[in-house]
């Protein structure tokens, strides 16, 4: 299991990370909310251990950010604050489990394994490109967090592009993949589909590279 540990207490962070590694976990340690938020949003983890009181950005807001980005990784919240209010806040923000400090590492490991088992089989397969995201397991796109309605052919084109986001996908490759089961589609129909996609997701997002192909642009500006 690959774990993201967000903990600003250096001694505790080190102790947990070392112990987890001994138990066979791979661990990335972030020592402030900002780094934790960034790592959890850009890397793939099987679970995260998140302290609530953190410098730069507090744990609750980190958690909210991940959930807003549709990061489904199980999150175990750690906190010294054992009052009911912070618990409720943590769960509302999308925590899966909760441990109050001082933490017994054995218990932490037990709970992590339980979270891992619960989430097994629902591997995060979200690919993001600016405000556009693609769940490759469900085969569904969303734009600004809202489901995007696409026809079967539009879905094929856009998924080809997002799987190679940022680079030019050659027309021939795209054509082959999109029409593999159709047979006999005329080459103009690819332009038609791209045109319809542009209307749905924004014209600037699909760049035409003359004579070559198309590129999905992830910069939202
Ligand atoms: Ca702390």
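Sequence proposed for the structure above (221 residues):
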């Amino acid at each position: 299991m690959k774990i993201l540990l967000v903990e600003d207490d250096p001694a505790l962070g080190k102790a947990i990370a070392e112990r987890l590694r001994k138990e066979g976990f791979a661990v990335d340690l972030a020592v402030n909310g900002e780094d934790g938020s960034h790592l959890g949003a850009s890397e793939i983890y099987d679970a995260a251990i998140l302290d609530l009181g953190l410098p730069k950005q507090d744990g609750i807001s980190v958690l909210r950010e991940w959930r807003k980005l549709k990061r489904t990784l199980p999150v175990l919240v750690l906190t010294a604050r054992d009052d009911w209010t912070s618990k409720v806040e943590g769960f509302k923000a999308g925590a899966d489990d909760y441990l109050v400090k001082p933490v017994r590492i054995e218990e932490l490991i037990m709970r992590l394994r339980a979270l891992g088992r619960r989430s097994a089989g629902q591997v995060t397969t979200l690919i993001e490109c600016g405000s556009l995201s693609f769940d490759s397991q469900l085969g569904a796109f969303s734009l600004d967090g809202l489901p995007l309605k696409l026809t079967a052919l539009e879905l094929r084109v856009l998924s080809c592009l997002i799987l190679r986001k940022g680079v030019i996908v050659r027309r021939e490759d795209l054509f082959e993949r999109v029409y593999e089961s159709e047979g006999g589609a005329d080459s103009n129909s690819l332009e038609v589909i791209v045109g319809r996609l542009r209307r749905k997701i924004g014209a600037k997002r699909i760049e035409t590279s003359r004579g070559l192909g198309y590129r999905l642009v992830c910069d939202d500006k």
